[in-house]
Structures are given as structure tokens and as C-alpha cells.
């Protein structure tokens, strides 16, 4: 299990104030989506199993580093049902713990038992992923104060902030198996489309999930005036009157939340935003499958990944 | 020039809000101590000149990443006579710019035109340096609220926070030249002792520099109750009465600075702290030279580095 492995990595490391917050976030679990993508891809391409753990751990560490720093920037108090590092300790601890975790991620990748050239490719992939996630996070911050974000801008932002890491995990499996460059690119693109579909599903669930099943508050994005795909699509498709209403509700913090949520939901319903978003998700899933179909391994080996992609992008929670 | 090279690296990169702060700090110059150490070491070991720039740039970028994040943690408004990134923009921009710069540093190292095994050694060195600097920074933060910091604790903190990066720069030259492991270790240790001497000189200059020549305020460490070598040594060597006075002045923010500075300086003078610190610096410089003497290259090739070590550790500003 990854938890035990992370425990062993951090065992007795000092200073405690640096490593305790890292241990805290790595032990929280979460979906472990990225390690699973690495594992599935490595298996599909027939990579050496012994090398998978380092790569899977490296991506999971990179992901958690971004969470620690994002939570400072968003002043987020809770993640996975527990106080964020920033809240449980403080901003300085969270900055430094994130810095160290990003470095540990790279060190983990460097430990991968593979030829030097392969390890270099993997570390390059990790670096490219990390810089693009930073770019995506900056765009996300920029969008908060920008009034003319387009749907294309938004897709580019989530490509960087969310999709490239899922794509990187899938590509890593191809690199580990020394598969042809074209296979590595196709599985990478498969991950990009998966990531876009995954994020749009996230946007959709914020409004249409069953609260009990979803496990977190419905309408959080609307409450925080987040420019999600649903909002931007509604803005794009709206009449002048609807446009003004959307602008009004998304620029005011003083409106009663129930009132705001139901007004927005009514506009979404009038504009058929749910179906439009679902159709967009379907398009991305099809593109993802199309990229996967161009990977040169037996179809039977692709089924596990295909199943996962369907599960992630058509999930209810 | 490194400035031009940094300009070319960042040219037209987007989003601007991510890359402008990075450009801002990299164009400020500073001593460029770390790139110079890489260059001198590479030359001494006879490494390929074409590979030096990437390595030098990588270490300078890593150093500037630590400055950006340290300035948030210290709430420092000014660095190199200009507003810090944290102050000129804000905390979120500084967190993300630092994250991206650390990643760019690794990517820069990966570009080094050298055999794969060498590049892996260099990236490993960079990662080890980065994690140790984080550990040193955490210890520094811990010491702020710790009343029983020993001189040994302090030396360990500055070894991590300051010395390992100088040592890493020197070791990188040996790695680039594929020199024997023992040479790489000796030049690394040479850098550790250089770093310790360098930091003790810094501590000394805070109290005894000529303000005009030093170019910054004298007594800044005393004003901020920083536990420097001088303070810890004084605490260690003091009578009960002096001990109480030191504790009093270093736990109060409400005392008039002139009064505090002159009282502390008097205790330092009574305890001969200046001479004791200078003698400690001399010991470290001798150890540094001793390590350098064990490096297997012609003595004539060591002169430039030796001259630099003397200049850095016996400097007046």
C-alpha cells in the first residue's frame, strides 16, 4: 500500500515541523487516482512492475504538493474532510512543506529502477507536468478577477491545472516500458481528454449531484462565484436578461445562497446547460477512447483503463 | 551574461503573472556567487565549458526560488534594494512564482549537455540541495520560538540553509568533469566550510561592518532578535548577569533600538565575541583549504577558488 510506503519514506526524518505536515497529507489517502493511472498504463504497456511504485508515488507526491499550496492560495480550511495543512499549522509551514514535498517527488522519480535515459525522460515529464500545473493555477487565479474568460480559456486552464497530470501518469507507463514515442503521445492525449471530461464532470456534480452521495456541499462553486464550464457556457448561450442575472449573482457576495443557487439553477435549466455539459463530456470521452485506440497494444489490455475512464467521467460522486 | 540568458529563457512565456515575478528577481543580479562557484570549480576540474551555463543557471534559479519563498515567510519588504516579490505582488503570486522557479531550475539542469549518468548525478545533487535548504529554513523558523538553541544547532542550521548550496555548486564542477568521487567529496566539503565561514562573516558584519561600506543597516539581526552565532556564543560564554541582560533584550520588542544595540555590543565586547567569531571563521577557512588541498588537481588551478574563498570570508561588506 502507498500509505505504508510513504510512512517508510518519511520515517524519522527531521525537522519534525517540516515532515509532519507531509506525512499528514500523504496519509489522508484520497482517490489515489494518479498512482492507479500509472499502474494501469504500466501494466497495459507491459512495463517492469518493480519500477511502478516509484513513479506512482512521485506523481501522488507532486499532486499533494499542489494541494498544499493551492489550499494556502484559496484559504481552504478543509480537504478530504480534514483541516488543510495551511489551517492545521500555518501558511509558512504549508509553503515549506509543499516545497519539500515537490522535491521529494522528484527524488522519488530519480530512484526509479530503470535505464538512465528512461529515468531522465520520467524526470523531464514530471518537471513539464509541474510547470504546467503552476501555469494552470496562475490562470485560475487570474480568472477570478477577469470578466471576459471564454470557454476556450477555461478549457486551456483545466488542461494545465488538471489534465496534464493525469496524462503524465499515463505517459509514464509508456516510458517505463520503452514503448514507441507515438504510443506515449497517444496515451498522453488520452489522458488529456480524460482530464477535461473529469473536470467537466466535477463542475456538473457541483450543481447536480445527490448531496448525500456526493459527500460534500452542493453549489460550492456557485457560492464562491467560480467560473466553471457550466457558468461560462450559460453566459455564452444566454439572452441579455439572463446574462445580466448571471453577472449580478456572480458579482455579489451578499445575496442569500438559497436564492442565488435556485436562480442560477433555473437559468441553467432554461438554457439546457446540464445536457450541453454532458454532451461535451461525452465528446471528450470519445476523443480519449479514440487516442487509446491508436495505441499499439492488444485491445484486451486496454479494457481496465477504458473501464476506469468511463467510471471517472460518468461518476455520480 | 546570465541576465541575458535568463531573459531568453523566459521570453514570451505565459501567463505573465507567473513569469513576470520570476523575470523580476532573476534580473536583479545580486552577487551571482553560486554561478561563479560552478564556473570556478568546472574550470579547476577541466570540465566541458559548454555544460557550465546550464548548471550555473540552475543553481542561481534554485537560490532565487528560496529567496522568493523565504521573503514571504519572513515578511521581508526589501531585497537587493528593491521590493520583494511578495511585497511587489502578493503572497499567492510569490508562492506560485517560487514553485515555478524551482521547477525551471530542475528543467535547466536537465538540459545540461552531458552523458545521461552525469545529468542524473547533477539532478540528484540539485534535489538533495533543495531538500536540505528546506530543512535548514524550517530549523531557522523553529529557532525563532526556541529558547535553548545551542551553537551546534545553529551550525547545523546554517550548514543546511546556506552551506550545502555553495558546496553543491562546487561539487557540480567535479561531476561535470567526471572527476573521481573522492575529489567531488573533498570539494563539496570545501564548500561546506566556506559556507559556514561565509555565514559567520555575515553575522559579524551585522554588528561590526562600516554602515556606508556594508550598504545596509547595521544591527538588523539584533533588532529582529535573530539568534546569530554572536548571540549564541555570547549566551554560552556569559556570566549570570550578562545572560539575563541578553535574554531581556532579545525577548523585548519595546526597547529603544539604540539602547539595545549599544547594550548588546557592550556585552559582546566584554566577552570578546568579535575575536572569538573571527577565530571560528579562520578555523572554517583552514578546514576549507584543507579539503581543497586533498583535491587531485594541480595547485596552480586551485588559486582562483582559494582567492575567492578568502575574499568571501574576510570581506567587509
Would you write up a description of this structure?
Two copies of one chain form a homodimer. Chain A has 317 residues and is mostly helical. Chain A folds into two domains: 1-30 and 49-113, Farnesyl Diphosphate Synthase, CATH 1.10.600.10; 117-317, Orthogonal Bundle (Farnesyl Diphosphate Synthase), CATH 1.10.600. The first copy, chain A, has 16 helices and two strands. Chain A has helices at residues 2-10, 16-26, 33-45, 52-73, 85-88, 91-110, 116-144, 151-176, 181-208, 211-214, 220-223, 229-237, 240-249, 257-270, 273-293, 299-313; strands at residues 78-79, 82-83. In chain A, strands 1-2 form a two-stranded antiparallel sheet. In chain A, helix 8 crosses helix 9. The first copy, chain A, starts with a helix and ends with a helix. In chain A, 49% of the residues are buried. The model of chain A has no long low-confidence stretch (mean pLDDT 95). Chains A and B meet through helix 4, helix 6 and helix 7 of A and helix 4, helix 6 and helix 7 of B.
Summed up:
The structure is a homodimer of 317-residue chains. Chain A is built from 16 helices and two strands.
What labels would you give this structure?
317 residues, mainly alpha, 1% strand, two-stranded antiparallel sheet, 16 helices, Farnesyl Diphosphate Synthase, 2 strands, homodimer
What secondary-structure arrangement, pairings included, does this model have?
The structure is a homodimer of 317-residue chains.
Chain A: H1 2-10, H2 16-26, H3 33-45, H4 52-73, E1 78-79, E2 82-83, H5 85-88, H6 91-110, H7 116-144, H8 151-176, H9 181-208, H10 211-214, H11 220-223, H12 229-237, H13 240-249, H14 257-270, H15 273-293, H16 299-313
Antiparallel strand pairs in A: 1-2
Helix pairs in contact in A: 1-2, 2-6, 3-4, 3-8, 3-16, 4-6, 4-7, 4-8, 7-8, 8-9, 9-15, 12-13, 12-15, 13-14, 15-16
Amino acid at each position: 500500500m502507498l500509505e505504508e510506503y510513504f510512512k517508510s519514506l518519511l520515517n524519522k526524518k527531521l525537522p519534525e515541523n517540516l515532515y509532519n505536515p507531509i506525512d499528514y497529507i500523504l496519509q489522508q489517502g484520497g482517490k489515489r487516482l494518479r498512482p492507479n493511472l500509472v499502474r494501469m498504463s504500466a501494466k497495459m504497456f507491459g512495463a517492469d512492475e518493480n519500477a511502478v511504485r516509484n513513479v506512482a508515488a512521485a506523481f501522488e507526491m507532486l499532486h499533494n504538493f499542489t494541494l498544499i499550496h493551492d489550499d494556502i492560495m484559496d484559504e481552504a480550511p478543509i480537504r478530504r474532510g480534514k483541516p488543510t495543512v495551511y489551517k492545521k499549522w500555518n501558511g509558512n509551514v504549508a509553503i515549506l512543506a509543499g516545497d519539500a514535498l515537490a522535491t521529494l517527488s522528484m527524488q522519488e522519480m530519480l530512484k526509479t529502477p530503470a535505464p538512465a535515459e528512461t529515468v531522465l525522460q520520467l524526470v523531464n515529464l514530471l518537471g513539464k507536468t509541474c510547470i504546467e500545473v503552476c501555469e494552470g493555477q496562475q490562470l485560475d487565479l487570474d480568472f477570478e478577477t477577469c470578466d471576459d474568460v471564454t470557454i476556450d480559456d477555461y478549457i486551456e486552464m483545466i488542461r494545465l491545472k488538471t489534465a496534464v497530470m493525469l496524462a503524465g501518469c499515463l505517459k509514464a507507463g509508456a516510458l517505463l516500458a520503452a514503448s514507441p514515442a507515438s504510443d506515449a503521445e497517444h496515451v498522453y492525449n488520452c489522458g488529456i481528454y480524460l482530464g477535461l471530461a473529469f473536470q467537466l464532470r466535477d463542475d456538473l456534480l457541483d450543481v447536480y449531484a445527490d448531496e448525500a452521495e456526493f459527500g460534500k456541499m452542493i453549489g460550492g462553486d456557485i457560492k464562491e462565484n467560480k467560473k466553471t464550464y457550466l457558468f461560462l457556457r450559460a453566459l455564452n448561450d444566454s439572452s441579455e436578461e439572463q446574462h445580466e442575472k448571471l453577472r449580478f449573482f456572480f458579482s455579489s457576495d451578499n445575496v442569500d445562497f438559497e436564492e442565488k443557487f435556485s436562480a442560477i439553477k433555473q437559468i441553467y435549466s432554461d438554457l439546457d446547460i446540464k445536457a450541453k455539459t454532458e454532451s461535451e463530456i461525452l465528446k471528450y470521452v470519445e476523443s480519449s477512447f479514440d487516442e487509446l485506440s491508436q495505441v499499439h497494444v492488444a485491445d484486451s489490455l486496454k479494457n481496465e483503463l477504458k473501464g476506469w475512464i468511463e467510471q471517472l467521467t460518468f461518476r455520480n460522486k
